[in-house]
Amino acid sequence: MSAEPAVTDPLHTLSVGTAGPRIAFLHGLFGQGRNWSTIAKGLAGPSLDGVRATLVDLPDHGRSPWSAGFSFEGYAVSVASTLRAIDAGPWIVVGHSLGGKVAMTLALTEPDLVSKLVVVDIAPKSYGNLDRFTGYMDEMQRLPLGELRDRADAEARFDEQDPGVKAFLLQNLRREGAAWRWQANLDLFTADGARGDESVIADFPFEPGEVEPFDGPVLWIKGGESRYIKDEDSERMRGFFPRVRLLTVKGASHWVHSDAPAVVTEALRRVVQSES
Question: Where is the AB hydrolase-1 domain (predicted)?
């Protein structure tokens, strides 16, 4: 895969906290940096001196620029450039799902920038395809943006039974004057989903042995009710990250930080405060 940056302009970020270690948060597919706000505020604490958190909108998401084509290495280059413009680091980097793969790619390709890594409910492997998401993308494509009167109208027309999933996806809908648009690069993701088992987003850019393992500490958080991480993934994870430790959060789905924010916040607090 190309190591060219996904976008050359800085990514959009939000900051939480005024003092403490630098920590960056990377969201999942169709997410935004602000999805990590509750966790970041919990780590910063009431005096805002627990951490200096940066919540990143990945390329093709939120308020960040769009790319011409998806690449994990390209996304990692864009994140690295954005973080270095804020602070030379090193940074603690936390990533969920798609953001977890970007975070792993960043640690493997820019190890000087990453002191500690936290990967939330994703493994460094190919998931085959984006079938988990193509239904969502099809429904987003069906929404008649030119006919929408207001957000309530959009919610009524959007056919998704899970209210949490509906709210998560519709956070990407933005009104500009009288027109509506998707902030996320929906066409790019839909095209990747249409590739089936050739999906780049569902894949991972490296095999063990192709890159130098990351020698920093890694916390791997798994949702107890999620199927994204399997027992057989542990050997592959250790091939890239020899100092990995797995934490399973009971009762949590793939969206671990939304289902169990207190547990995830405390786990991250221990990462921040640990010496190594």
Answer: 22-261
Instruction: State whether 232 and 101 are in the same domain.
Output: yes
For residue 52, pLDDT beyond 70? yes
Task: Report the alpha-carbon distance of residue 108 to residue 71 in Å, rounded.
Answer: 15
- Give the residue from 71, 62, 69, 72 showing the smallest Cα distance to 33: 62
| Tokens 């006919």 -> residue | 147
- End-to-end alpha carbon distance in the chain: 32
Handedness of CA 188, 64, 109, 114 (dihedral sign): negative
Both 101 and 77 in a single domain? Answer: yes
The DSSP string of 32-43 is -GGGGHHHHHHH
- Point out the residues that are catalytic: 97, 187, 254
Distances (CA, A) of 31 to 35, 69, 74, 169, 266: 7, 18, 18, 8, 22
DSSP-assigned beta bridge partners for residue 136: none
User: Which residues constitute the domain of residue 136?
Assistant: 131-193
**Is the domain of 62 the same as that of 93?**
yes
Categorize the per-residue pLDDT at 2 as very low, low, confident or very high, splitting at 50, 70 and 90: very low
- Residue 258's nearest CA partner among 162, 128, 177 is 162
Do 172 and 145 belong together in one domain?
Answer: yes
Q: Is the pTM of this model over 0.90?
A: yes
Cis peptide before 10, with omega less than 30 degrees from 0?
no
